[in-house]
Amino acid sequence: MDSAGSPVVFLDRDNTLIANDGDLGDPAQVRLLPGVADGLRTLKEAGFRLVVVTNQGGVARGRYTERDVDLVHARIAHAVDEAAGATRLIDRFYYCPFHPEATVPAYRREHAWRKPQPGMLLQAAQDLHLDLDRGWMIGDKPRDTAAGRAAGVRTVLVGHTPNEGPAADFTSPTFAAAVELVLAQRGSDGLDAARRAAARAKSLLEMKPAYDDRSAAVATAAPSARRTKRSRIERDKHQRTRQAKTALEPLRRALLELVEEVRSDRTRRGELSPMRIAAGVMQLATIVCAVFALLELADLTQFGRWLGGALLTQLATIALLLFDRH
Ligand SMILES: [Mg+2]
Question: 102 and 179, same structural domain?
Fold first, then answer.
C-alpha cells in the first residue's frame, strides 16, 4: 500500500459504535455507546481517517431497505458530530446488504464485502487512498477482526477481556480503551507490516476469482444460446446501472446528509430563512439534473453534462446553507 496514504481506523457499527441487538432501520432508534463520540474525535485529531464497515443482513431479510440504512448512517454521523462538537468525523460508511440465505432474492448471495471477508476495507482503501500498513479495525465480533486481519490491518476486539483467545491482535473492555490502545501503538506500525501485507495480497488474489465466479454463474445458468445472449444483455444492463449508481453515489449521500442536516437545523431553530428557501430551490434543481443524467445514460456526453449540472447546483446548495449558518 502506498505509504503516502492516510492511516485509517475501520469501525464496526452495531455494538461497537451504537447499541443494536436487533434489526435497526429507524434513525430515531440510534443510540451512541459511551465514549464513542469522544474516542472518534481523538482518533481524528491524531490523523486517522474513520471508516465504518457493517454487514446489513436485515436488508437481505427484508426487515428494512438500503435507503433506511443510509438514513441510519446519516443519523449516526450527525449524532457523533453533535456529541463530539466536530464536523464530519466519520469519513464514510460501507455496508453489505447481501446474505447467502436472504429472503429477498436480489440480495441472496455470498459477497466479498460481507465480513469476515475484507472486501469493504479493501474497497475503502482504494476509494480513499488509505495506508493499510498504519491501519486498524475495531469491532465487537471475531468476524470483524477476521476481516481486519485479511485486509492486513491490526485488530482490536472490544467488549472482551484480554484472555479470550487469539481472535484479534488486541482486546479491550471498552471503546475508549481501544482508542487509547491504538494511540499507544503509534510508532510501531512497521513491526509486523510484512506479514500483514502478505495477508492482504492473499486476500486480493482470492477476492478476484470470487467476483469472476459470480459473473460466470450468470452466464452458465442459461442452458441455451438464446438465453445466454439474453443473460448477457441483462448483465450489461445491470453493469451499466451499477456504474451509474456508483457515479451518483457521492451525490446521493450528500443529499441524504443534507436532508438530515436541514431537518435537525429546522428542529433547532423552528424557522426557514430566505437563504434556506433558496437552498431548497437549488436542491430541487440538483434532483432534476440527477434525474436527467439517469435518463441520458446511453449518451455519455449528455450524461456528463447533466451530472456536472447536478454537482454544481449541489455545491451552490451547500454554499447557501453555509452562508445561512454563519
Ligand atoms: Mg458488531
Answer: yes
Boundary (domain end) residue, out of 200, 220, 240: 220
* Cα–Cα distance list, 1 to 125, 152, 155, 196 (Å): 9, 10, 18, 11
Query: pTM (2 decimals)?
Result: 0.65
Residue 155 lies in a domain: yes
Residue 72 Cα to ligand 1 midpoint, Å, equals: 15
**How many A from CA of 48 to the centre of ligand 1?**
21
Domain-ending residue, one of 188, 220, 252: 220
Q: Are 95 and 249 in contact (CB under 8 A)?
A: no
Of 12, 70, 91, 144, the active-site residue reads: 12
3-state SS, residue 197? helix
Which stretches in the chain have pLDDT values below 50? Answer: 1-2, 211-230, 267-268, 270
Count of domains forming the chain: 2
Task: Judge whether 14 counts as a catalytic residue.
Answer: yes
Ligand 1 centroid – CA 250 distance (Å) = 25
Q: Which residues pair with residue 137 across a beta bridge?
A: 10, 155
The cell for 154 is 491490526
What is residue 78's predicted lDDT score, i.e. its pLDDT?
97
CA separation for the pair 320, 265 (Å, rounded): 14
In a domain, 19, yes or no: yes
Domain that holds residue 190: 8-220
Active-site residue, 212 included:
no
Cα(65) to centroid(ligand 1), Å: 19
Q: In what order do the strands lie in the sheet with 92-96?
A: 92-96, 49-55, 8-11, 136-139, 154-158, 170-172
pLDDT given at position 228: 39
Q: Which amino acid is at 204?
A: L
> Is 272 found in the same domain as 134?
no
What is the whole-number distance in angstroms between the Cα of residue 15 and the centre of ligand 1? Answer: 5
Q: For residue 19, how far is its CA from the centre of ligand 1 (angstroms)?
A: 9
Dihedral over Cα of 299, 302, 312, 275: its sign: negative
- Catalytic hit among 14, 81, 144, 169: 14
